[in-house]
């Protein structure tokens, strides 16, 4: 099995060197690793739905859904099970194979909303889709119940390096995040964990975030790489957009460090040209969010994505496909 060749002992210095090597060498190396471990022309299409929008207790400086900031996101009541499953059915008909549901919560709480979350997971799975939830921190018992409901993946991001973290979030610690990720791993649900670039971090911070991910054993099955969408009203509203080559470098490095993970080009894709997106695919990206909306911000149009995939001869990855 090629997984046995995956390393879990990457150092910061090694990762900084990879991130900064000449771009063409970096892409070549990432594509070589990608081809050794994954089908070359298959891209996972994941559709995202915000089940509970806005009014979040956390103070994540990038997030339009935090109750700490005045943004154009108005808090909405939680969507009901039927509406979520209608949306999942539609996503399936339109070609998605993974359905990701988000709650703007600090942590999962027991009660009606959690029981409904479990019903949504069961419903999404019964449609034959992979089901992913992102809803903040959780404990072992909650992870266990989500696993029993058939949840495929739980998303909880590191967002940035441990050193830069407290510039971005003060209402929960890096350790809290790692604890949640441990609960997910112990429950048997696959781990979806990545972060954001463009928060004002250094290249060392980027390397450190990747180092924490790539020294996990096993690696996260899924690694979303987000470029900050600077939203008016958040503390990061004036942050300069990241250079698309920095995003390519981040994706390529993630691919080299974590050969079998789904590397998902996440927030910030609508700012990329078709060519920049294809560079990301060359760099080993094999998953995208598919559909007009992320949680509260926009994503490329479905038609544009269909056309792009067709033009380059890429096809949708089947649900539950294992890397070879
Ligand atoms: N509340 C849950 C949590 O924080 O885990 C789930 C939803 S939260 C919006 C999921 C992730 O979206 C965050 O961890 C962050 O990485 C990403 N995100 C949120 N706002 C973003 C923005 N403006 N630009 C880029 N990524 C963003
Ligand atoms: C992830 O890493 N990115 C997605 C998903 N996981 C939940 C969310 C991106 C959110 C971008 C800002 C918004 O639309 O609110
Ligand atoms: Fe809340 Fe998640 Fe946004 Fe942080 S990223 S404010 S936890 S919704």
UniProtKB/TrEMBL annotation:
PROSITE patterns assigned to the protein according to its UniProt record, in alphabetical order: RADICAL_SAM
UniProt enzyme class: transferase
An example molecular function term from Gene Ontology annotations: 4 iron, 4 sulfur cluster binding
Pathway membership, UniProt: Cofactor biosynthesis; biotin biosynthesis; biotin from 7,8-diaminononanoate: step 2/2
Catalytic activity: (4R,5S)-dethiobiotin + (sulfur carrier)-SH + 2 reduced [2Fe-2S]-[ferredoxin] + 2 S-adenosyl-L-methionine = (sulfur carrier)-H + biotin + 2 5'-deoxyadenosine + 2 L-methionine + 2 oxidized [2Fe-2S]-[ferredoxin]
EC number: 2.8.1.6
InterPro entries from the UniProt entry: Aldolase_TIM (IPR013785), BATS_dom (IPR010722), Biotin_synth/BioAB (IPR002684), Biotin_synthase (IPR024177), Elp3/MiaA/NifB-like_rSAM (IPR006638), rSAM (IPR007197), rSAM_sf (IPR058240)
Binding locations of [4Fe-4S] cluster: 56, 60, 63
Keyword Transport part of the UniProt annotation: no
Domain Radical SAM core, chain residue ranges per copy: 41-269
Keyword terms, alphabetized: 2Fe-2S, 4Fe-4S, Biotin biosynthesis, Iron, Iron-sulfur, Metal-binding, S-adenosyl-L-methionine, Transferase
GO BP terms: biotin biosynthetic process
Positions contributing to [2Fe-2S] cluster binding: 100, 132, 192, 264
Cofactor note: Binds 1 [2Fe-2S] cluster. The cluster is coordinated with 3 cysteines and 1 arginine.
Cofactor: [2Fe-2S] cluster; [4Fe-4S] cluster
Pfam families on file: BATS, Radical_SAM
Complex and partners: Homodimer.
UniProt function note: Catalyzes the conversion of dethiobiotin (DTB) to biotin by the insertion of a sulfur atom into dethiobiotin via a radical-based mechanism.
Family named by the database record: Belongs to the radical SAM superfamily. Biotin synthase family.
Protein name: Biotin synthase
Gene: bioB
């Amino acid at each position: 099995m090629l997984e046995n060749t995956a390393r879990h002992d990457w150092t910061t210095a090694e990762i900084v060197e990879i991130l900064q090597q000449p771009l063409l060498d970096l892409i070549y190396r990432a594509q070589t690793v990608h081809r050794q471990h994954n089908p070359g022309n298959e891209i996972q299409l994941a559709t995202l739905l915000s089940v509970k929008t806005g009014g979040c207790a956390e103070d994540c400086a990038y997030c339009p859904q935090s109750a700490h900031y005045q943004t154009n996101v108005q808090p909405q009541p939680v969507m009901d099970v039927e509406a979520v499953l209608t949306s999942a059915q539609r996503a399936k008909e339109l070609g998605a194979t993974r359905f990701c549901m988000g709650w703007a919560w600090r942590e999962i709480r027991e009660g009606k909303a959690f029981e409904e979350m479990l019903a949504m997971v069961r419903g999404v799975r019964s449609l034959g889709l992979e089901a992913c939830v992102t809803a903040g921190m959780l404990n072992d018992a909650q992870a266990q119940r989500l696993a029993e409901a058939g949840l495929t993946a739980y998303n909880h991001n590191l967002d940035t390096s441990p050193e830069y973290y407290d510039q971005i979030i003060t209402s929960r610690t890096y350790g809290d995040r790692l604890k949640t990720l441990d609960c997910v791993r112990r429950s048997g649900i696959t781990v979806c964990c990545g972060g954001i670039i463009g928060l004002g971090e250094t290249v060392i911070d980027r390397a450190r975030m990747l180092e924490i991910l790539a020294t996990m054993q096993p690696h996260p099955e899924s690694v979303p790489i987000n470029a900050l969408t600077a939203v008016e009203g958040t503390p990061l509203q004036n942050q300069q957009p990241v250079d698309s080559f920095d995003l390519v470098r981040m994706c390529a490095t993630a691919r080299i460090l974590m050969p079998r993970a789904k590397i998902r080009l996440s927030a910030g894709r609508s700012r990329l040209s078709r060519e920049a997106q294809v560079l990301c695919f060359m760099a080993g990206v094999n998953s995208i969010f598919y559909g007009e909306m992320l949680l509260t911000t926009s994503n490329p149009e479905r038609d544009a994505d269909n056309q792009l995939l067709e033009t380059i001869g890429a096809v949708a990855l089947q649900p539950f496909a294992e890397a070879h």
